[in-house]
């Protein structure tokens, strides 16, 4: 019997029963003298069918609405949880939750998609970790005949989805539940969903943020995405913003536990970095002052800029009204930073004529800086006996300058070394330094490059700390205009050393100590790798200590590189937040320590896509950066 005929027969039987019951009711009413004869008076008899529950017509509308609502939920469902393939199971270390994906929804499901599986009073929040096709019927379609039929079809790619079943493996992330009836919270996945429960897309922004344990405010990094497609919700705006925690609610702001941006050339590192750095100069981005924790200040961004790109933070970008509205609705800071300075080192034969329209301040590196940083002059590796002899010479030179009340200069040190009387004193009279060793020191320490950089016609950097390190200021140190790589490295390493030494020393400069500083180091592998130069090796120890103590000293490292594998391991270990763009080098990918399922995605990330691994901020996720820069970018 067909379903239509079966339905007609069922309706006829129901009508017959109803007619007989009404007849019996009528007889009973007449026998009782018409006491209950409401039908005779044309009134509605609610007891015609005593086994059916009568409902008020006003409530019927609500019932239909609920049914319609239920239908809408079912229509949105990807499919159902099933035990038809393997049993459902969950324990303390793993889970096996399998869903059947309906034929009509298969084009919408993606590896990594976030889903909800409801319980009666809670919800399982999970991620699709595996997709698998299986045959619906036990037939063999791996035959030559079937292959030829499919290849000669007009539309070769079409298959009958109902002949196959698509199974999705759900990796449970957490259980979502309401505390006190309204506050959504999460706990570990400790319940197993019932078979045939619908698998639903996540359309509530609060569920996504709570499920992934990501902050709802802070430093904006981008929008949550899966496979390059933005996660959309029913909220306005529909996107889910990803923020980096930037307050003291759960400890110190995460920038003081350091941040790494890594990606191959052309993946948009600078574009992304400008968008992130702009957020740190928002009005509400304030950090505690070291000497008085009750006081808070905006940070100073100190940027080592080898390509002369970051001074454009000073200028606005052209943004549409729609972009302005979206930025404001998601608390994205945008627009140029008027308090931006371009700080350029005076170098003989070089002149800065770059992109910056910000105020330019020239400075020079005084040779007195070498007194406590003698490694600055060690351009080449020195054997142990040369190191000892060099330290004796540099110490004696500064003592002599103090005694004579002279200003120490590089040219003065050069004359000191080249003086035959001094050479004879150290090699012959006292024997402190062997003659061959003395000659080796002179060859390595005396270099034409140093004559071009020390004690030039500008204010010494040690007298410009109040100009360089103002709260709420962007201080950009461009080096592209300098041809000599040795001089560029010396400038960058000197500034890095100034900041670290004063932050970590109890007797450091109070301006630097009491100003929260975010040190942005582009091409970080050039300076934080032992293999890059002798000078870099000397600063590694300082930066390892700075990375460990930065949290309490108000020093955040913001490292940018295309070669994360070259950064010293001890420093990389201290970096809590890693933003990984496209990388094609296997050793670079393995160095950032991503989970295997995310590590495989890295070489396929498109421009603007990235993986965020920040354990103290939330679960590891994929996000997509803004399509437009919040400041000028050319």
UniProtKB/TrEMBL annotation:
<dbReference type="InterPro" id="IPR003593">
    <property type="entry name" value="AAA+_ATPase"/>
</dbReference>
<dbReference type="InterPro" id="IPR002789">
    <property type="entry name" value="HerA_central"/>
</dbReference>
<feature type="compositionally biased region" description="Basic and acidic residues">
    <location>
        <begin position="17"/>
        <end position="47"/>
    </location>
</feature>
<dbReference type="InterPro" id="IPR027417">
    <property type="entry name" value="P-loop_NTPase"/>
</dbReference>
<protein>
    <recommendedName>
        <fullName>AAA+ ATPase domain-containing protein</fullName>
    </recommendedName>
</protein>
<dbReference type="InterPro" id="IPR051162">
    <property type="entry name" value="T4SS_component"/>
</dbReference>
<feature type="region of interest" description="Disordered">
    <location>
        <begin position="17"/>
        <end position="64"/>
    </location>
</feature>
<feature type="domain" description="AAA+ ATPase">
    <location>
        <begin position="255"/>
        <end position="583"/>
    </location>
</feature>
<dbReference type="Pfam" id="PF01935">
    <property type="entry name" value="DUF87"/>
</dbReference>
């Amino acid at each position: 019997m067909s379903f239509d005929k079966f339905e007609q027969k069922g309706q006829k039987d129901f009508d017959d029963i109803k007619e007989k019951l009404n007849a019996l009711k009528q007889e009973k009413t007449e026998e009782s003298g018409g006491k209950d004869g409401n039908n005779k008076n044309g009134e509605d008899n609610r007891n015609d069918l005593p086994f059916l529950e009568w409902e008020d017509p006003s409530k019927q509308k609500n019932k239909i609405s609920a049914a319609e609502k239920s239908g809408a939920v079912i229509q949105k469902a990807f499919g159902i949880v099933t035990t038809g393939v393997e049993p459902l199971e969950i324990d303390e270390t793993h889970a096996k939750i399998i869903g059947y994906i309906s034929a009509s929804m298969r084009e919408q499901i993606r590896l990594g998609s976030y889903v909800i599986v409801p319980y009666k009073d809670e919800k399982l929040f999970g991620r699709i970790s595996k997709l698998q096709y299986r045959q619906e019927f036990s037939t063999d379609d791996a035959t030559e005949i079937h292959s030829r039929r499919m290849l000669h079809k007009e539309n070769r790619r079409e298959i009958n989805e109902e002949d196959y079943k698509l199974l999705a493996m759900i990796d449970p992330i957490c259980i979502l539940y309401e505390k006190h009836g309204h506050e959504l919270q999460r706990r570990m996945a400790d319940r197993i969903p019932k078979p045939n429960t619908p698998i639903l897309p996540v359309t509530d922004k609060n569920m996504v943020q709570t499920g992934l344990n990501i902050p709802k405010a802070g430093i904006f990094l981008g929008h949550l995405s899966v496979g390059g497609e933005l996660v959309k919700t029913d909220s306005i705006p529909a996107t889910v913003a990803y923020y980096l925690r930037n307050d003291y609610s759960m400890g110190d702001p995460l920038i003081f536990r350091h941040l790494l941006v890594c990606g191959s050339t052309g993946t948009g590192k600078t574009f992304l970095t400008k968008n992130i750095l702009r957020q740190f100069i928002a009005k509400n981005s304030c950090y505690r002052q070291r000497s008085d924790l009750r006081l808070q200040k905006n940070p100073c961004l100190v940027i080592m800029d080898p390509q002369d790109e970051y001074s454009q933070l000073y200028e606005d970008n052209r943004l549409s009204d729609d972009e302005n509205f979206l930025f404001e609705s998601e608390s994205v800071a945008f627009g140029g930073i008027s308090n931006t300075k371009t700080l350029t080192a005076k170098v003989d034969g070089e002149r800065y004529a770059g992109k910056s329209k910000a105020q330019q301040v020239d400075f020079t590196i005084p040779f007195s800086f070498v007194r406590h940083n003698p490694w600055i002059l060690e351009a080449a590796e020195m054997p142990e006996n040369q190191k000892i002899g060099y330290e004796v010479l540099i110490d004696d030179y500064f003592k002599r300058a103090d005694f004579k009340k002279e200003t120490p200069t590089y040219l003065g040190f050069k004359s000191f070394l080249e003086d035959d009387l001094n050479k004879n004193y150290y090699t012959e009279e006292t024997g402190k330094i062997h003659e061959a060793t003395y000659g080796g020191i002179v060859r390595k320490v005396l270099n034409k490059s140093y004559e071009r950089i020390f004690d030039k016609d500008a204010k010494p950097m040690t007298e410009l700390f109040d100009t360089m390190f103002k709260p709420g200021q962007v201080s950009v140190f461009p080096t592209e205009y300098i041809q000599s790589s040795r001089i560029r490295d010396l400038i960058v390493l000197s500034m890095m050393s100034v900041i670290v030494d004063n932050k970590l020393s109890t007797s450091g400069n109070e301006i630097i100590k009491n100003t929260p500083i975010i040190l942005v180091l582009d091409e970080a592998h050039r300076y934080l790798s032992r293999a890059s130069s002798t000078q870099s090796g000397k600063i590694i120890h300082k930066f390892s200590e700075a990375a460990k103590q930065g949290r309490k000293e108000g020093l955040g490292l913001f490292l940018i590189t295309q070669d994360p594998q070259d950064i010293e391991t001890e420093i990389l270990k201290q970096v809590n937040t890693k933003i990984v763009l496209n990388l094609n080098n296997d050793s670079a990918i393995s160095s950032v320590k991503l989970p295997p399922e995310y590590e495989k995605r890295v070489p396929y990330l498109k421009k603007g896509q990235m993986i965020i691994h920040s354990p103290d901020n939330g679960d590891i996720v994929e996000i997509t950066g803004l399509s437009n820069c919040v400041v000028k970018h050319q």
